[in-house]
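Try this one yourself first.
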């Protein structure tokens, strides 16, 4: 690590810390709120089915605003975009905390999603803004680890707040978190447009490395979210787990993703994206294939190797796809590329959840889960590995 701090400006590490915290906040929000939904339904006298709109509307608004948010980053700088996004995000959280009914709560989530869409490209592009291209994997590994930790903290914080103080506490908690993120961004993220030189042409976003990175990002989230969804349903429907325990079980994957991120980032800097991402997709695919094609138990201690394989396989992909896409374009286009990568992840997550729902439409039994795991393995090995092989092994 001493070599890293000697070659990277000290301010770049502070900016990375602020952007990692911002990314963690956006990650916490979704999982924290999801845990509170049953209490929301009871308090606002809403049936279970419409409750899904609290999550759906957030991600729809998030996706719609992403590309304008990336453009805002490239034109005015990450600090401006992040602070504007955090202001909207906090306003939505306040509106949700005070919501008198379910309709207002849904509107508040749309406002929060729009804020997140503005802030997300700033968080990703800002994380590497002070790092030279050959060191951006290290930064992105830390950035990805922060998001992994947030995946663990969100459900735990949401469960504690909802159980102890009620569902509104989950929304109130977002206000000081957003304020802390805003202070960090204002103090630690440089102002003004990123980079220097003329505005890059629009075609820069269609470079092969960018398109491959976006596709790989979407594929990784399709597999991750699809597996999360199916395993959680199986644990409740077939294995008899409580909802809270079923939600906690996949946290082993999140722990592994967070733990492997910084090491994977440094390895990517040393070896390039191609070999690391090929190995990552191969490890994830092998783990899914083993559990899909054998009679190995799908829950309990016997399922731990599957969680570890997915964590070790998916963890390096956060840094790999982001570094590949960002290093393929001038810094003046980083905001738009960050937005495209985030959009790919959102699309993959939505498609993964939808396909998982189709896979278990007749029940989440062991047979259905194994079939889905084999499909996930095929995606990793037959689509993920070839995608990774298309990437350069050194930064552009």
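Now uncover the answer:
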């Amino acid at each position: 690590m001493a070599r890293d701090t000697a070659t990277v400006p000290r301010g770049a590490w502070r900016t990375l810390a602020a952007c990692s915290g911002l990314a963690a906040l956006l990650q916490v929000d979704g999982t924290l709120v999801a845990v509170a939904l049953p209490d929301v339904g009871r308090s606002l006298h809403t049936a279970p089915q419409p409750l899904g709109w609290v999550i759906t509307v957030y991600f729809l608004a998030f996706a719609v605003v992403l590309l304008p948010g990336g453009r805002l980053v490239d034109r005015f700088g990450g600090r401006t975009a992040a602070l504007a996004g955090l202001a909207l995000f906090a306003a939505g959280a306040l509106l949700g905390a005070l919501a008198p009914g379910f309709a207002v709560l849904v509107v508040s989530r749309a406002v929060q999603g729009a804020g997140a869409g503005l802030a997300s490209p700033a968080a990703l592009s800002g994380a590497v803004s002070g790092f030279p291209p050959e060191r951006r994997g290290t930064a992105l590994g830390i950035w990805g680890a922060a998001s992994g930790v947030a995946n663990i903290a969100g459900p735990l914080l949401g469960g504690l707040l909802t159980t102890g103080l009620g569902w509104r506490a989950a929304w109130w908690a977002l206000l000081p978190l957003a304020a802390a993120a805003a202070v960090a961004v204002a103090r630690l993220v440089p102002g003004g447009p990123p980079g220097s030189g003329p505005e890059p042409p629009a075609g820069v976003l269609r470079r092969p490395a960018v398109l491959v990175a976006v596709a790989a990002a979407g594929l990784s989230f399709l597999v991750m979210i699809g597996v999360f969804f199916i395993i959680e349903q199986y644990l409740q429907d077939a294995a008899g787990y409580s909802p809270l325990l079923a939600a906690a079980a996949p946290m082993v994957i999140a722990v592994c993703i967070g733990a492997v991120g910084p090491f994977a980032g440094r390895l990517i800097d040393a070896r390039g994206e191609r070999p690391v991402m090929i190995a990552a997709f191969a490890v994830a695919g092998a783990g899914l294939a083993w559990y899909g094609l054998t009679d190995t138990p799908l829950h309990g201690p016997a399922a731990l190797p599957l969680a570890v394989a997915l964590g070790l396989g998916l963890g390096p992909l956060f840094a790999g796809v982001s570094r590949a896409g960002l290093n393929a374009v001038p810094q003046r286009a980083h905001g738009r590329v960050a937005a495209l990568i985030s959009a790919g992840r959102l699309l993959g997550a939505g498609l993964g959840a939808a396909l998982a729902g189709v896979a278990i439409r007749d029940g989440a039994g062991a047979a259905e889960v194994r079939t889905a795991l084999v499909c996930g393995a095929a995606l990793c090995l037959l689509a993920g590995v070839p995608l990774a092989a298309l990437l350069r092994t050194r930064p552009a």
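Discussion: The chain has two domains: 8-194, 202-396. Residues 286 and 377 are 7 Å apart (CA to CA).
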